[in-house]
Structure formats: structure tokens, C-alpha cells
Amino acid sequence: MSTPFSTMFIAIAIAMSITIIIPRVDCARAFFVFGDSLVDNGNNNYLITSARADSPPYGVDYPTHRPTGRFSNGYNIPDLISQELGSEPTLPYLDPQLNGQKLLIGANFASAGVGILNDTGIQFANIIGIYQQMSFFSQYQQRLSSIIGEEQTQRLVNGALVLITLGGNDFVNNYFLAPITPRRIQFNLEAFSHYLIDEYRKILKRLYEMGARRVLVTGTGPLGCVPSQLATRSRNGQCAEEPQKAAFIFNPLLVQMIRSLNQEVGSDIFVAVNAMEMQNDFISNPQAFGFITSKVACCGQGPYNGVGLCTVASNLCPNRDIYAFWDPFHPTERANRIIVRTIYTGSDKYMTPMNLSTIMALDANI
Question: Is 330 an active-site residue?
């Protein structure tokens, strides 16, 4: 029979062991986000840049009804993926609240305006280029290691889901930015697309070297069909020919590159998310998805509400749920929900080599 002293000693030992293993408790897997404005949760709020969404009416349908830095009327794609994971949204890496236990959830490193190339988005000034985002990821791992140790940090990163969204800005805010641009002089459209894919491959390999083992890699949307391009480059409301051609070249190349990269590393690490096919569905037949239009942005000005920025002076639709596009470039929250549902359950038309529900089922058995 144990004495009161030994009983107390056992209780203390149990309490100490619980304290030690708290970081190892299996909660929702960590989630890391890299990329541009489609997935930026507010990093640019902390930068002196023109690429920001921290003023009304952005966030009008977010739970707080206030702008958050998301380029959306409400939730964006990372928020909705976090919900599928059963987790709270990842905080922007620059948010001062991202510390302590919050680090276990993951982090969002994305920055509006960036691209695959370092010279993409330079007109916005002070944005976080993709290699700086990965530098922050390394810094994040060091910070987390100081809390839970290197071994646990490596386990968390290896088991995490990663989302990276790049490419659209390299065309819209670089190659097509003006009738004559340095990249247009250097490359024809096909050669430029191949160059982007080669550079994207280097970025993905770097993420793999940093411990990423499940990476969702999105291509571009249908670039010629967004309201900004309809307003400035379209004939009679048809998708603008040259940006649309870019998307048709780039996205199949991305799928080929990911298949090749997975063969090289010997595992299905990288998953191609065909955002163009996903958005083509509701752009070509918006009524089938409950939208009244896929041409006119909810918030903006000029033709198709596709000119300039979304501000308090813009036209604002009263019901965001019936618009596919929120502003001249970005989908509404409801469109984002359709995209994320397809990421979760979509066929190989949309997700190569597997969808997110398959990833989660496979990884649950590890």
C-alpha cells in the first residue's frame, strides 16, 4: 500500500509528465501558407505598401464585419481549409499575437502582390517576396524549437499541411503590366511560362528541404476572365485573350512539373490544385452555382466594376453571395467555399494526384 508521501510523489510525477508532453498532443495538424493576395491573411497590414486590404468594405462579411487584411468580403481560402482541418485560422507571421501556443497552429507567410519572380510586384513596394517568406519559415522553426525542441518541431513541420499560391501576379503584374515590359522583351509567352515553372520548381524543392511533406500547389485562375481584365483588355465582355492563353499554357505545365518532382523525391509530396478548372466551372455557368454573374465584381468601379481598387467610394453590391468576384481580382467568400470544397473532394480533373480528403485519410493512418 502506498503511503501519502509516495502517493503525492506519483501525482507530482504524473503532473510533470503531462506538462512535458502537452506540445505532443495530437490536435489539428499545423498549417502553413505561402503566396500572394489570394491567401494573405493580413501580413501586408504591417508593411508600408499599396497592396493592402485593411480598410472598408473589405471584411464586410467577416465575423467581426471589419477589414482584416484579407482580400475578401469574408473568409479566404486558407481560412476555409483551416475549417476543414478542424483548426482555427493561421495568423499572419507578422502579427504580434503569433507566439507561444499559437505557433503550434502554424503560420501564414503570404503577402499580396508577390509572385514566383523577385521582380514581380515591385511597383507595390515593401512586400514579402517568396524567398523572404521561406526565410520567415526558417525563423518560425527556430522560434518553435525554443518552445518544444527541434525533434518535435521537425515532427510538426513534417506532419503539417502546406498551401502555396503563386503565378497570377507574374503575368498580370509583371509580364502584362504594360504593352512593353522587360519580361515581354526577354520572353515570348510560352517561353515565359516555362521559365516560371522552372523557378516554381526551385521554390517547391526548397520547401521540401525545409521539411514540408504535404504541399498543395495552386496554379493560376482563368486570368483573362477576372473583372479587371474584362474592364481593360476584353472585347464585348469575352475573356481577354492573351492572359487567358497564359493560364492555358501555365497550368498544364505546372501539373507536369509536379508529377516530375514527386517522381524525383519518391513520394506524392506535392499536389497540383487546378484553380483554373475550378473557377472555369462557375465562370462559364454562374447560375448553376447560384451566382447572378461571374463578370461583374461586387466592389469596384468602371466597366464590370473592374477598374481601380475596392474602397468606400466604390459601387458595392448588397448581396455578396450572388457574385463570383468580390473585387476586380479576387473571388467572394462564397466562391472561395466552392474552390475549397473542390480542393477537399474534387476529382483528378481538379486535384493531381489526390484531393485533400484523400490526403487526410492517408495521413490519419500514419
Answer: yes
